[in-house]
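Worked problem 6 (solution included).
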Amino acid sequence: MSGQIIGMHDWLASPPGQYLLSWERAQMAQAVGNVFGFHALQLGLPELDALEANRMPHRWLATQTPTETSILPQEPSASPRAALVTDFSALPFSANSLDLVVMPHALELSADPHGVLREVARVLMPEGRVVICGLNPLSMWGFCQRRPNWFRWMGAQRLLLPSAGECIGYLRLRDWLSLLSLEIEDSQFGCYRPACSSQAWLQRFNWMDKAGARWWPILGSVYCLVAVKRVRGMTLINPARKAVRRLAVAPVTVANSSGNIRSTGQK
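Solution. The predicted structure is:
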């Protein structure tokens, strides 16, 4: 690999990029396979059909530039995806209208990741789900992203993302989700091998996937999490009832047929 900065789409065609896509494809299939509803949206990364395992009748792929739509597979066997070009921080959907949103690296490639996440929370229905994939800065790949001149012998001379991209840590993202009433339901880490430039060297480190998942799970190079939009229920408080006014009881003299007189109370 050369020392120049490349884009995300070019890097995904490399051996480590294909390795990442393979892991994310398996995670997405598990995360969205049993999510039911009518409307699902994928933000960015057309190289990955994140909604392939989902069975919702309406599925869209949103990109930020028209050139990204040309990356869509043209094979007839490929699953159809309606593509639209839009700003991720201003989605053309009404509030509470989507059942599922998947975001493979959409946040770290955005100039305003918090604004994008806030917009996703707006369009999600209550109990709707969002699936997010991102590079972990507390990992070997994240370290190479910040220091591209280090670990040249591992084949990571270049940045993994464009210069505008930023790795968003899992703990940082968890705080953002909490502020938007998005509760994390599940999270996984993966891709423990170094970003080697050749497929042969990448295969030599395949033992690191099992070892990393067991001994240092949070140091995986990429994470995938599922969050649910929670809307807390409201309890209606009835207005205070006015006190019932009671009339004073006054004794009344009543005579019966036998001539006896008795006293009784009447309101």
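Discussion: The beta strands are 39-43, 58-63, 82-85, 98-104, 124-135, 182-190, 222-229, 250-255, 261-266.
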